[in-house]
TrEMBL record:
<protein>
    <submittedName>
        <fullName>Flavodoxin</fullName>
    </submittedName>
</protein>
<comment type="similarity">
    <text>In the N-terminal section; belongs to the zinc metallo-hydrolase group 3 family.</text>
</comment>
<dbReference type="InterPro" id="IPR045761">
    <property type="entry name" value="ODP_dom"/>
</dbReference>
<dbReference type="InterPro" id="IPR036866">
    <property type="entry name" value="RibonucZ/Hydroxyglut_hydro"/>
</dbReference>
<dbReference type="Pfam" id="PF19583">
    <property type="entry name" value="ODP"/>
</dbReference>
<dbReference type="InterPro" id="IPR008254">
    <property type="entry name" value="Flavodoxin/NO_synth"/>
</dbReference>
<feature type="domain" description="Flavodoxin-like">
    <location>
        <begin position="253"/>
        <end position="392"/>
    </location>
</feature>
<dbReference type="Pfam" id="PF00258">
    <property type="entry name" value="Flavodoxin_1"/>
</dbReference>
<dbReference type="InterPro" id="IPR016440">
    <property type="entry name" value="Rubredoxin-O_OxRdtase"/>
</dbReference>
<dbReference type="InterPro" id="IPR029039">
    <property type="entry name" value="Flavoprotein-like_sf"/>
</dbReference>
<dbReference type="InterPro" id="IPR001279">
    <property type="entry name" value="Metallo-B-lactamas"/>
</dbReference>
Length: 400
């Protein structure tokens, strides 16, 4: 059982860590686990903000009772209905039969499919509505599609806390350090970007709208549904979400290749070597068959300069490269600069399909694509000189 954490007077974090699940949403690896956060405010009226995933380890109800004692729970605010946060709503409803659920019209619609009609146990709120609990006052802001259509955020104006649903969340369980008084953003930055890009990345425009709507609030503490509570570094975390949702990248480069018999792999290594030779450091190289898609998406979110290489496969690009390209189209990431290359034995297809991706994505091609027939002979490798020159020049100019 985890410990309840007091984050302000009368405000508690009662989240649980999950290190058992291998794949978040049954698709994204979480080698460092994840936390599902729930918050409880004890005041003249008591309010729970979101629950945790059904069956999460830890005696969730015991922890609520530890804070409330014999008192009743008056409200359950449902900021987000995705089951990693709504999974224990049924349990709370059974234990506290008079609790009122607070959400918006879309929350009610989605809840219907999970709990049935709650009648007058559901209290609908609209954008800007407030609710006094005593010393604490909750203000509700609709932030649709960050990350589901019903998503809203709740601002507590006495302690200046924003309960932000998935926003400002991260993969990674909290190893005894539930707030940034005890940990540092540096510990989470990579996993936060992987979480943002894979889970919320498609909704960057809606994240921007939410940030604009909330910009006038004085936020002292960010209480996301995943990861630590951010106070000391709240501004930096908001800054990262702002940057990523604007598709802004670092002046960095990544090479991702698909290769069956190491010919395209050899070319990827050759390009990386030529980059280093030209003074471009920090280039990362990944094999699409070895590194999980989620890390590749996160790396492309990080880097402005993206080099994609594919062997030909059934007169097309390699299937896992196709998955990566289709994922990027699905997320709609913009503002990247692209180089493409590949190899074939006859007929081609890899580079041809990557050209189509370049057109569909709108990413600017930094140079003419290079496709080699056969293996990495010195004559074939020499064909990469113009690509290396053009890309290195771009990166060096961008870094100035
Ligand atoms: Fe953490 Fe969209 O749920």
């Amino acid at each position: 059982m985890q410990t309840n954490v007091s984050i302000a007077e009368g405000v508690y974090l009662i989240g649980v860590n999950d290190r058992r699940t291998a794949l978040f949403e049954n698709i994204w690896p979480i080698p460092y686990g994840v936390s599902y956060n729930s918050y409880l405010i004890r005041d003249d009226k008591c309010a729970l903000l979101d629950t945790v995933e059904f069956g999460s380890e830890g005696a969730y109800l015991d922890r609520i009772e530890e804070i409330l004692g014999e008192r009743e729970l008056d409200y359950l605010v449902v900021n987000h209905m995705e089951p990693d946060h709504s999974g224990e709503i049924g349990t709370v409803l059974k234990r506290y039969p008079s609790v009122k659920l607070i959400g918006n019209a879309m929350t009610r619609k989605i809840l219907l499919g999970y709990t049935g009609d709650l009648g007058d146990r559901f209290m609908e709120v609209k954008d800007g509505d407030s609710l006094s609990l005593g010393k604490h006052t909750l203000h509700f802001y609709m932030t649709p599609w960050v990350h589901w259509p019903e998503t809203m955020m709740t601002y507590e104006s006495t302690e200046k806390i924003l309960f932000s649903a998935d926003a400002f969340g991260t993969f990674g369980a909290t190893d005894g350090a539930m707030t940034d008084a005890l940990t540092d953003l540096a510990e989470y930055r990579e996993e936060m970007r992987r979480y943002y890009s894979n889970i919320v990345g498609k909704y960057g425009g809606m994240v921007q709208k939410a940030l604009a709507k909330l910009s006038s609030l004085d936020v002292k503490t960010l209480c996301s549904l995943h990861g630590p509570v951010w106070s000391r570094q709240a501004g930096e975390v908001i800054g990262l979400y702002d940057k990523w949702s604007r598709c802004e990248a670092d002046e960095e480069a990544v090479i991702i290749y698909a290769s069956m018999y190491n010919n395209t792999a050899h070319m990827a290594n050759h390009i990386a070597d030529r980059m280093a030779e030209r003074g471009v450091t920090g280039v990362k190289v990944y094999d699409v068959s070895k590194t999980h898609l989620s890390y590749l998406i996160s790396e492309i979110w990080r880097c402005r300069y993206v080099m994609l290489g594919s062997c030909a496969y059934n007169a097309d690009m390699f299937p896992l490269m196709e998955l990566l390209c289709n994922s990027m189209l699905h997320y709609g990431l913009k503002n990247r600069e692209l180089a493409i290359f590949g190899s074939c034995s006859f007929g081609g297809g890899g580079v041809r399909s990557l050209r189509k991706f370049a057109e569909a994505s709108g990413w600017e091609l930094m140079c003419e694509p290079v496709e080699v027939t056969g293996t990495a002979t010195p004559a074939n490798l020499a064909k990469f000189e113009p690509l290396a020159d053009a890309v290195a020049e771009r990166i060096k100019a961008g870094r100035k």
